[in-house]
Amino acid sequence: MVGLCVNVDHIATIRQARRGQEPDPVQAAVLVELAGASGITVHLREDRRHIQDRDVELLRRLVKTKLNLEMAATEEMIRIALALKPEMVTLVPERREELTTEGGLDVHGHVDEVGRCVRRLREDGIVVSLFIDPERDQLSAAARAGADFVELHTGSYAEARDYKAQQVELTRLIQSATVGRELSLRINAGHGLDYRNVGPVAAIPEVEELSIGHSIIARAVLVGLERAIHEMLAAMEKDGAGGR
Ligand code: PXP
After folding, report:
1. Average pLDDT over residues 154-169
2. How far is the C-alpha of 241 from the C-alpha of 244, rounded, in Å?
3. Domain containing 140: what range?
4. Helix axes of 9-17 and 25-34: crossing angle, nearest 10 degrees
5. Residues 211/68, Cβ–Cβ less than 8 Å
6. What predicted TM-score, i.e. pTM, was given to this entire model?
7. Is residue 89's pLDDT more than 50?
8. CA of 122 to the centre of ligand 1 (A)
9. Given Cys at both, which of 5, 156, 177, 194 links 39, Cβ 3.0 to 4.6 Å?
10. Contacts for 96 with CB less than 8 Å, ≥ 6 apart
11. In angstroms, what is the span from residue 115 Cα to ligand 1's centroid?
């Protein structure tokens, strides 16, 4: 069964709106795990706009499933990851102006640089995933860089304006998952997934885990975190032919 790694950055975004202590993404992570998620994702950004160093340190001690640290491939972040030792690091591109991670990491254009970073993390026993667009060039570069996993960027699928466009994007994801496995990469996916569009992606046989944040936290504000997670786990099971 495909796993669900929940991104709790959005809880920290609400806290940072007042620069206060509530709501606490660490408390949220405990509830997320109790509700049946397979992991917790946090993105420690260079500008610390939501998740803080204190959060990752506490999460490292508390998370019992899996801590997936999303980060840019910078010296500062590598140092933090090596000290923290999360089970998984997902390397993502990062730009200050963006609202959220926009495109995938350009591994194809920076294979040596990314490869060096992957090696340093893997040597310390950290599983490394690269967040990439579902493209053949990026997949083969990810394999050359020595990554364990790729996380296929599902943003274009999630933003497709109609059913036909969505099917085109779904086909790209399915083909990329097949190509990735042929290259001995393990496959995760995420970005922009919600209760309506998650089924077909969860049904791709190669996909091991989905990383979902915004839609779950948005629903949790109205119905509570436990119910929001249970409903997402149910939506993932429903293989919804067509999504919308
Ligand atoms: N995967 C990665 C690499 C991301 O950067 C994000 C957004 O932080 C997500 C998944 C989750 O995206 P969303 O919040 O749209 O579910």
Report:
1. 97
2. 9
3. 3-243
4. 150
5. yes
6. 0.95
7. yes
8. 23
9. 5
10. 46, 47
11. 23
CB of residue 104 inside a 6 A radius of ligand 1:
no
- DSSP collapsed to 3 states, 173-233: HHHHHHHHHHCCCEEEEECCCCCCCHHHHHCCCCEEEEEECHHHHHHHHHHCHHHHHHHHH
Q: What is the CATH number of the domain that holds 213?
A: 3.20.20.70
Sign of the torsion angle spanned by Cα atoms 213, 215, 216, 217: positive
**Burial class of residue 60 (count of CB atoms within 10 Å of its CB; 0-12, 13-18, 19+):** middle
Look at the block and give the residue holding tokens 């399915």.
Answer: 174
Q: Which helix (H) or strand (E) holds 165?
A: helix 163-182
| 222 pLDDT more than 90 | yes
Distances in Å between the Cα of 156 and the Cα atoms of 77, 159, 165, 173, 221 are: 28, 5, 9, 10, 26
d(CA 149, CA 131): 9
Is the CB of 13 within 6 Å of ligand 1? no
Q: Which two tokens stand for residue 38?
A: 């397979």
